[in-house]
C-alpha cells in the first residue's frame, strides 16, 4: 500500500541509520524511548536540538552519535562543556547544520520533529535527498505539500506520518485501494476549552491553555489544540499526504482521544485506529515501517474507558478550524499566511502579550488582507511566510 504523496520503498536496512531532528522536544524524547526499547534495530547517527543543551547532552552521552546540531554558537559552547570526557562529536550550528544532518548520505530515516515552519527547510532537503521521513512537523506539508510531492516522486523519498491522526489514517489505509476511499475523518479531542462560550474564552490564561486533557505535548501544539488550529493544520496535512479534496476530509470531536482517526470506504465501512494517547505508537509505526514494532505501554482498557463519544466541532467558537478549510480552498499561499500568522500569535500569547481570542483575530486579519500570490518555489513560500510574520508583529505591537 502507498500513501498518496510518495511511493513507499521496501528496502529497510538493519540496523536502520536514523537522524533525529528535534530530539529534545516531546516527540524526540518519545522517539528515543522507542529506540531504547529496540536495541540493535536502530543506529542513531545524529541528534539535533535547538536550544536545550542540557537535555541534548544527556541524550548524546547515552547514545554517542558522531554528529550533533544546535541552533546557535552559545548553545553549542554550552553543549560542548556538558559532554563527557572522551566523546567529541562534531557539532553543527544553525539551519545549515540541520540540512546537513537531514541529507547525510548514510542516513536512511530522518525524524522531522522540529516545531513550526522552521522544520520546513531540513525536511524538504531530506525529501530531495531521497530519505524516508518520519514526519512529525505538520507545518512542512502545510507550507509546501506540492514541493514534497514533487521531491518524493523524483527521488523515491517516502513520508511516513508521525502525527497521530495521520498515522492512524496511514494504518487504516494499509492494503486498501485509494480509489475506494470515501472520506477521511480526523478526530479532535476538542482541547481544554471544549464547551466554553466565546465570552469565556476571552478570559482564559496561558496555563489553562497549556493544560491539554489527554496528550502531553510541547507548548506550541498545546495552544494550537486549544484553538483547534492544530486540527486545521492537520486537515491541510491530510490533504497533501493522502490526496483527497478538502470536502472529503472531516473533523469530528472525540474528547476521549482513543479513536485516533478513521477512514471511510465506498462501501461505508469505516476503519479506525484506537490506542492509548501515547505518541510512541505513531513514532514506532513510522520508524519501524514496514514492520510493526512491539512497545511496552500500558494497554488500552476499553471497559475502563467506557464511553466513546463524538460531536461536531464548534466552528463558531473555535474559528481557526474553519480558517484552515478556507485557506486550503483559497489557494496555495493562504495556508502559508494562516500558519505564519498563527505561529506569531501563539508566540505572543505564550509571552503574555496577547489574549487567547486575539489568536484567531490576528489569523483572520492576515488571511483577509492577503491577496493570494505565487507560492510555487521554496523561496516564494519563505517570502510569504516572513512578510506575514512581520505584518502580524506590527499589528500586535
Ligand atoms: Mg495530531
Which runs of at least 5 residues are low in confidence (pLDDT < 50)? none
Please state how the strands of the largest beta sheet are arranged side by side. Answer: 4-3-2-1-5-6-7
**CATH topology-level name of the largest domain:** Rna Polymerase Sigma Factor, Chain: A
Gyration radius, rounded: 20 Å
Distance between the termini: 50 Å
Proportion in β-strands: 5-15%
Instruction: Tell me, briefly, the overall form.
Output: globular
Give a quick account of the main beta sheet: strands, pairing sense, barrel closure: 7 strands, parallel
Average per-residue pLDDT, rounded, comes to 94
What does this structure look like?
Helices cover 46% and strands 15% of the residues. It is of the alpha/beta class and 397 residues long. The chain folds into 2 domains: 16-162, Rossmann fold (3-Layer(aba) Sandwich), CATH 3.40.50; 180-276 and 307-396, RNA polymerase sigma factor, region 2, helix turn helix motif (Rna Polymerase Sigma Factor, Chain: A, Orthogonal Bundle), CATH 1.10.1740.10. A 7-stranded parallel beta sheet has the order 4-3-2-1-5-6-7, with helices on both faces. Helix 2 (53-63) packs across helix 3. The longest helix has 19 residues, at 333-351. The model has no long low-confidence stretch (mean pLDDT 94). Bound molecules: magnesium ion. Magnesium ion binds next to helix 7.
Amino acid at each position: 500500500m502507498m500513501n498518496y504523496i510518495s511511493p513507499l520503498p521496501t528496502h529497510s536496512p538493519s540496523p536502520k541509520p536514523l537522524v533525529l531532528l528535534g530530539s529534545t522536544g516531546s516527540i524526540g524524547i518519545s522517539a528515543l524511548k522507542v529506540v531504547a526499547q529496540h536495541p540493535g534495530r536502530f543506529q542513531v547517527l545524529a541528534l539535533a536540538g535547538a536550544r536545550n543543551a542540557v537535555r541534548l547532552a544527556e541524550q548524546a552521552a547515552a547514545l554517542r552519535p558522531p554528529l550533533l546540531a544546535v541552533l546557535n554558537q552559545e548553545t553549542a559552547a554550552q553543549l560542548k562543556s556538558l559532554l563527557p570526557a572522551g566523546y567529541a562529536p562534531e557539532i553543527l550550528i544553525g539551519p545549515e547544520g540541520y540540512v546537513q544532518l537531514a541529507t547525510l548520505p548514510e542516513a536512511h530515516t530522518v525524524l522531522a520533529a522540529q516545531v513550526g515552519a522552521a522544520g520546513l527547510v531540513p525536511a524538504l532537503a531530506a525529501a530531495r535527498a531521497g530519505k524516508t521521513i518520519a514526519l512529525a512537523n505538520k507545518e512542512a506539508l502545510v507550507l509546501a505539500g506540492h514541493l514534497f510531492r514533487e521531491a518524493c516522486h523524483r527521488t523515491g523519498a517516502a513520508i511516513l506520518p508521525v502525527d497521530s491522526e495521520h498515522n492512524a489514517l496511514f494504518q487504516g489505509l494499509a492494503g486498501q485501494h485509494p480509489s475506494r476511499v470515501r472520506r477521511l475523518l480526523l478526530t479532535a479531542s476538542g482541547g481544554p476549552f471544549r464547551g466554553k462560550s466565546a465570552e469565556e474564552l476571552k478570559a482564559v490564561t496561558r496555563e489553562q491553555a497549556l493544560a491539554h486533557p489527554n496528550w502531553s505535548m510541547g507548548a506550541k501544539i498545546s495552544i494550537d489544540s486549544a484553538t483547534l488550529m492544530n486540527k486545521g493544520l492537520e486537515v491541510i496535512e491530510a490533504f497533501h499526504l493522502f490526496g483527497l479534496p478538502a470536502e472529503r476530509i472531516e473533523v469530528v470531536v472525540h474528547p476521549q482521544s482513543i479513536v485516533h482517526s478513521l477512514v471511510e470506504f465506498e462501501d461505508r465501512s469505516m476503519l479506525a485506529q484506537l490506542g492509548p494517547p501515547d505518541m510512541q505508537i505513531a513514532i514506532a509505526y513510522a520508524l519501524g515501517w514496514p514492520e510493526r514494532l512491539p512497545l511496552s505501554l500500558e494497554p488500552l482498557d476499553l471497559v475502563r474507558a467506557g464511553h466513546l463519544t463524538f460531536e461536531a466541532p464548534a466552528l463558531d467558537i473555535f474559528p481557526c478550524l474553519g480558517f484552515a478549510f478556507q485557506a486550503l480552498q483559497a489557494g496555495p499561499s493562504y495556508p502559508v499566511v494562516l500558519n505564519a500568522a498563527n505561529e506569531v500569535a501563539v508566540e505572543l500569547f505564550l509571552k503574555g502579550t496577547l489574549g487567547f481570542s486575539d489568536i484567531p483575530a490576528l489569523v483572520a486579519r492576515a488571511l483577509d488582507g492577503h491577496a493570494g500570490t505565487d507560492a510555487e518555489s521554496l523561496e516564494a513560500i519563505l517570502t510569504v511566510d516572513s512578510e506575514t510574520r512581520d505584518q502580524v508583529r506590527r499589528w500586535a505591537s
